[in-house]
Design brief:
The complex is a heterodimer of chains A (about 350) and B (about 290).
Chain A: E1 4-13, E2 16-26, E3 31-35, H1 42-50, E4 57-62, E5 65-66, E6 77-80, H2 92-102, H3 107-120, H4 136-148, E7 154-158, H5 166-183, E8 186-191, H6 194-200, E9 203-208, E10 211-216, H7 218-223, H8 228-233, E11 240-246, E12 250-253, E13 258-260, E14 273-278, E15 283-285, E16 293-302, E17 306-313, E18 316-323, E19 333-338, E20 344-346, E21 353-354
Parallel strand pairs in A: 3-8, 3-9, 6-7, 7-8
Antiparallel strand pairs in A: 1-2, 1-4, 4-5, 9-10, 11-12, 11-14, 12-13, 14-20, 15-19, 16-17, 16-19, 17-18, 20-21
Helix pairs in contact in A: 2-3, 2-4, 3-4
Chain B: H1 12-38, E1 41-43, E2 50-52, H2 56-63, H3 65-98, H4 103-111, H5 118-129, H6 135-142, H7 153-181, H8 185-193, H9 198-227, H10 230-236, H11 248-258, H12 262-288
Antiparallel strand pairs in B: 1-2
The chains are: A alpha+beta (about 350), B mainly alpha (about 290).
Chain lengths: ~350, ~290
């Protein structure tokens, strides 16, 4: 087990810079998830830590040792690949034993390690099968087995669940959570799925276009997104964002429509340009008199547990989360109220969060 | 889904396969049956008397020390051509797989020899190795090796093996390169993280995954060495010195067209035919089944 540290790490492919000055400390035994849209550089970060990509600038340390010029095999890490990368000509047993055999571990000891890993992952009945004889979920388990059998300093997961169907993904997510709790090994997990990030991470790193947008505990990130990007990326459906200018007790949007701000809500100074953010679950139907805004519903999604109403307000797409039994149809006009403590403000220039006192 | 086509007309399916059948009949079934028939006959060089001798031609062949020697020469030649050809091509393919800059030029140059006719390949190597005017014997003489493949049977064999391998390297190279490129990168990366160095990765991951390609090429190369090297041998050594590079297919030509022993030549063709049929069966049977991971 070990700490993984990134200091001012940057990466360029030729003239294209893909990672900008990244700092991250993954504490011993911590489970950190890097999440972001495709192409944000999250997999590149993982591959640099694994040693599969050279670092352009900065320093990577594993267990207190600078590993910039250390071969992957000498970094004492294990990686689970998106396509599992199981050796197709070897049985499950041989796949798991491969790394141990190369390290020259005695046969009896290898068998012991493999048996223990197989027991943890419930692979005991499958040890003599070839990868092609396994289902997607079983292959996924073997890939994990190959990682845990070596007892490495850190696990690296590169979108390990993206090739599974929705049901298996939920199941494996729970298993990974359980496994990481039992093993307590330092883990770095890359995904584009924010649900995986929210549920697995001790801390999550939200990345966008090669830069870190926010690092924090999942709920902190959810409750206090550091930028408009994070606000829109974390949460399903995403946070509603409206750009405009602050007026007297109201917020005027580009085309002149007005959002009435509830008394006591924090707000930027009068006349300032700002982005107002509010999550779909923090908009509630109210009487016309106290409504902050009125939304004309265009599309309705009934999810069973709740209902999502989509519409546009002043040209901005908006979505509201309503109770399952809400009676509405396309064309319904919804008068919606805001909760003073659940309003987020972002700077339109820097896109950063504005922390404002209540007023 | 039903993939078979069902024809309403009775004659259309036959008409559609007729061109292929006509070609196969004219260029394979008819000459093959002629060879089979001829192999049972004894004919004098001028064709004036023909006598039916049954399997006597075959019996005679297997008592003939010259024929058995030719068999041994063919085996040595094939093993050398297939062995050296495959290893050298694999080495080139592995290197080509790693280079990034100029990869296309490298590949194009390696594929060129395949476009050269066998006889021209033979002539090319004769010039290079000609004891009187060749540049290679001149260099070899400087390091104390006296080269004359017209006199030395080992050197003659070396020459035809080099020429035959050179001609086939392109083909093998292409298949190996395609095979290498179809191995997912993540497998190699996983092995690197598992602790395997480059050599170890090659022998434990890459080579086993290439085995279907390797087996296919092995059969193709043996068939090539057995049957397609006639042009090279004819232009480079004409089977000499003595009998030392007379492979089976060259002996068919020598006994038939030079020795005018048509019965024996036909019997040799039939034996070769049986060998190529055997190799084809091996290829179809095992390539799909045994060599799988």
């Amino acid at each position: 087990m070990a700490e993984v540290v990134l200091r001012h790490v940057s990466k360029s492919f030729g003239k294209t810079q893909v990672i900008y000055d990244m700092d991250l400390v993954v504490a011993d035994g911590e489970f950190v998830v890097i999440v972001g849209p495709s192409g944000c550089g999250k997999s590149t970060v993982l591959r640099m830590i694994a040693g599969l990509e050279p670092v352009t600038g900065g320093v990577i340390e594993i267990g207190g040792r600078v590993v910039n010029d250390v071969e992957p095999k000498d970094r004492n890490i294990a990686m689970v690949f998106q396509n599992y990368a199981l050796y197709p000509h070897m049985s499950v047993r041989e796949n798991m034993a491969y790394g141990l055999r190369i390290r020259g571990m005695p046969k009896a000891e290898i068998a012991e390690h493999v048996a223990r890993a197989a027991k943890i992952l419930e692979l005991e009945g499958l040890l003599d099968r070839k990868p092609r004889e396994l289902s997607g979920g079983q292959r996924q388990r073997v890939a994990m087995g190959r990682a845990i059998v070596r007892d490495p300093a850190a696990f690296l997961f590169d979108e390990p669940l993206s090739n599974l169907d929705a049901k298996l993904r939920v199941q494996m997510r729970l298993e990974i959570q359980k496994l990481s709790r039992e093993l307590g090994t330092t883990s770095l997990y890359v995904t584009h799925d924010q649900v995986e990030a929210m549920t697995l991470a001790h801390r999550m790193v939200v990345m966008n276009a090669g830069r870190v947008e926010q690092i924090g505990a999942p709920l902190d990130v959810y409750l206090r997104p550091a930028s408009a990007f994070v606000a829109a990326f974390i949460g399903v459906p995403p946070m509603n964002l409206l750009a405009g200018r602050v007026g007297e007790g109201a917020f005027t949007l580009g085309n002149g429509l007005v959002v009435r701000l509830p008394a006591g809500a924090p707000r930027p100074p009068f006349g300032a340009e700002a982005i107002l953010g509010v999550r779909p679950e923090h908009l509630a139907p109210v009487g016309e008199a106290e409504a902050a805004l009125t939304l004309t519903v265009e599309t309705i999604e009934r999810l069973g547990a709740d209902t999502l109403a989509h519409g546009t307000f002043d040209g901005n797409p908006m979505v509201v989360r309503l109770p399952a039994e809400a009676t509405l149809q396309p064309g319904t006009r919804l008068a919606l109220g805001l909760v003073p403590d659940e309003i987020h403000w972002f700077d339109p220039q820097t896109q950063k969060r504005l922390d404002l006192p209540g007023g | 889904m039903e993939k078979r086509v069902v024809f309403r007309s009775r004659w259309l399916p036959y008409a559609l396969v007729a061109p292929q059948l006509a070609i196969t009949t004219a260029f394979f079934f008819w000459p093959a049956s002629q060879a089979l028939f001829q192999s049972l006959l004894l004919q004098d060089p001028f064709g004036t008397s023909v006598q039916f001798v049954g399997l006597e031609n075959f019996a005679h062949l297997f008592r003939d020390e010259g024929y058995l020697a030719s068999f041994r020469i063919t085996v040595v030649f094939s093993v050398l051509v297939a062995g050296i050809g495959l290893s050298f091509s694999l080495l080139l393919a592995v290197m080509a797989d790693h280079i990034v800059r100029g990869a296309l030029v490298f590949r194009t140059l390696l594929i060129w020899p395949y476009a050269v006719a066998p006889a021209i390949a033979g002539v090319l190597w004769i010039f290079l190795f000609s004891p009187a005017i060749g540049i290679l014997p001149y260099w070899l003489a400087k390091i104390g090796i006296h080269w004359n493949h017209l006199l030395d049977s080992r050197q003659a064999m070396t020459l035809v093996v080099i020429a035959a391998v050179w001609k086939q390297v392109s083909y093998n190279f292409l298949f190996f390169l395609a095979g290498l490129q179809s191995i997912p990168r993540s497998l190699i990366e996983a092995a690197a993280i598992d602790g395997a160095g480059p050599m170890r990765r090659f022998w434990t991951i890459v080579f086993p995954l290439l085995s279907p390609t390797t087996f296919f090429l092995l059969v193709v190369n043996i068939v090539y060495a057995f049957f397609d090297t006639f042009g090279i041998i004819d232009s480079a050594t004409q089977g000499g010195p003595g009998q030392s590079t007379t492979v089976l297919v060259y002996k068919v030509f020598q006994d038939g067209f030079k020795g005018l022993d048509l019965g024996s030549s036909a019997a040799q063709s039939v034996i070769l035919m049986a060998i190529v049929i055997g190799l084809t069966v091996v290829q179809f049977r095992y390539i799909e089944r045994k060599v799988q991971y």
